[in-house]
Design brief:
The chain is an alpha+beta fold and 195 residues long. The protein folds into 2 domains: 14-70; 73-194, PH-domain like. Helices cover 26% and strands 34% of the residues. 27% of the residues are buried.
């Protein structure tokens, strides 16, 4: 468990509620939070809240997840969306299943106002859609995926497609091209490992 919350978002602010107190501390920047932890003023058992978290949670629990997702945001993904996708997928993956990559749509489609995420694990490709209440997670085992495709849409965006048994194709459009390329590369590796 880490005591240093790894965030790449300089404008992210935290509120801290120490156990046994009623008034939260904050807003605090990452450096303030780190200093309080290092000085022993707060502990990993105290509660933290920041925009996108949804509810107060123990510092240790939140930043353990933050640490796990930090390597998924190398390609400019929205950190809050990646965190939500990671939490949703973590509830359904098996113990031997590892999350390798999470891509986030840059902009939603014409009919949808919410962004979709594509999550690649060693056993599945997941598509996470935000609903009015909660999320919908579509799961496809790699052995049911016959192929994956990528298409450059122009303006730095692309489409990632999954072909299922030659009968169905699922397209996720408007993903930053760098993320589409990474999805395609990983999906080809997963298909080789399964096949």
């Amino acid at each position: 468990m880490s005591e240093a919350p790894p965030t790449d978002t300089p404008d992210l602010t935290f509120s801290i509620l120490k156990r046994g107190t009623r008034d939260p501390l904050g807003p605090l920047g990452e450096q303030d939070l780190l200093q309080l932890l290092n000085d022993g003023e707060i502990s990993v058992d105290d509660m933290v809240f920041f925009e996108g978290l949804g509810e107060w949670k123990p510092i240790g629990e939140v930043f353990e997840v933050q640490e796990q997702i930090s390597h998924f945001v190398d390609d400019g993904q929205d950190t809050a969306k990646v965190a939500a996708a990671f939490r949703e997928v973590s509830d359904v993956v098996g113990e031997s299943e590892d999350v390798y990559y999470i891509a986030v749509q840059d902009k939603a489609g014409l009919l949808s106002k919410t962004k979709q995420c594509v999550i690649i694990t060693n056993a599945h490709v997941f598509i996470l859609r935000e609903k009015r209440v909660g999320y919908e997670l579509e799961a496809h085992l790699w052995k049911t995926v016959t192929n994956t495709l990528m298409r450059d849409e122009g303006k730095g965006l692309g489409t990632f497609s999954i072909l299922l048994g030659g009968e169905k194709r699922v397209d996720i459009c408007h993903i930053p091209l760098k993320q589409v390329q990474r999805l395609f590369q990983l999906s080809q590796e997963m298909k080789q490992d399964v096949g």
